[in-house]
């Protein structure tokens, strides 16, 4: 079972992964399916084994805000499972996905103390990432925020090619706008600016980064 670097499953040993499999059951969703809904009171967790999802919430005005993109190995729904509160975000399949559904996740953690400690470390990383994004929103312009998100996608999902780093972008421009806290028009303008500088090339749901270091400089 291959997991993306830094995701929950990548931190577990083979024996721990097998224990997780034994505690849950496999399930699949089609692209576009709603996996979890904000406000629901269900308490199961999902460990992704294939595909990517977006984690999002909506403002009072109905605007979607994308909080994260999770890939293979990602853990979803852990907060509600542990504290019993309603779901804090909606999870949507960006492509066909597979995963392991675990019903009694707190019970599983009680039996596997090392995994509980790893989960605490992962939650801490998420909080740090959330803090970094809040700083970005206040300090960076839209082009800088778009560049930062493209770098994140390249580092996690990029494939090296002769022309640069290719990212099969799972997000539409509307979703990318929700991930950068900007309007679709502003994101479209930012992408055009990055293209004009020769830093990237865009196509349907894909981006080729020709100059990753130049993109990092623009992000800063």
Keywords for this structure?
220 residues, 4-stranded antiparallel β-sheet, 12 strands
Arithmetic mean of pLDDT: 90
In spatial order, strands of the major sheet run 1-8-3-6
Radius of gyration: 18 Å
Strand content: 25-35%
Helices and strands: which structural class?
Answer: alpha+beta
- Apparent shape: globular
Which series of helices and strands comes N to C? HEEEEEEHEEHHHEEHHEEH
Count the E strands: 12
Distance between the termini: 36 Å
Count of helix runs? 8
Largest sheet: 4 strands, antiparallel
State the helicity in percent bands: 40-55%
Low-confidence stretches: none
Q: What would your notes on this structure say?
A:
This protein is α+β, with helices and mostly antiparallel strands and 220 residues long. The protein is built from eight helices and twelve strands. The protein has helices at residues 14-23, 78-83, 105-111, 113-139, 142-157, 173-180, 184-196, 212-219; strands at residues 24-29, 34-36, 45-50, 53-58, 64-70, 75-76, 90-93, 97-102, 159-161, 164-167, 200-203, 206-209. Strands 1-8-3-6 form a four-stranded antiparallel beta sheet. A four-stranded antiparallel beta sheet has the order 2-7-4-5. α5 (142-157) packs across α6. It is globular.
């Amino acid at each position: 079972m291959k997991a993306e670097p830094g995701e929950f499953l990548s931190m577990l040993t083979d024996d721990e992964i097998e224990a997780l499999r034994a505690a849950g059951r496999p399930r699949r969703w089609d692209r576009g399916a709603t996996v979890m809904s904000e406000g629901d009171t269900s308490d199961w967790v999902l460990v992704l084994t294939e595909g990517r999802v977006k984690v999002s919430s909506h403002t009072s005005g109905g605007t979607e805000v994308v909080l994260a993109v999770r890939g293979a190995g990602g853990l979803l729904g852990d907060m509600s499972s542990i504290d019993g509160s309603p779901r804090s975000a909606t999870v949507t399949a960006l492509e066909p996905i597979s995963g392991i559904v675990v019903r009694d996740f707190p019970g599983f953690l009680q039996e596997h103390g090392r995994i509980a400690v790893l989960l605490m470390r992962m939650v801490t990383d998420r909080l740090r990432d959330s803090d970094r994004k809040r700083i970005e929103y206040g300090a960076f312009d839209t082009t800088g925020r778009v560049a930062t998100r493209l770098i994140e996608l390249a580092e996690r999902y990029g494939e090296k090619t002769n022309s640069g780093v290719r990212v099969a972008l799972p997000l539409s421009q509307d979703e990318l706008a929700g991930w950068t806290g900007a309007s679709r028009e502003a994101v479209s303008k930012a992408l055009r600016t990055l293209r004009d500088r020769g830093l990237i090339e865009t196509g349907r749901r894909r981006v080729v980064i020709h100059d990753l270091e130049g993109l990092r400089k623009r992000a800063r």
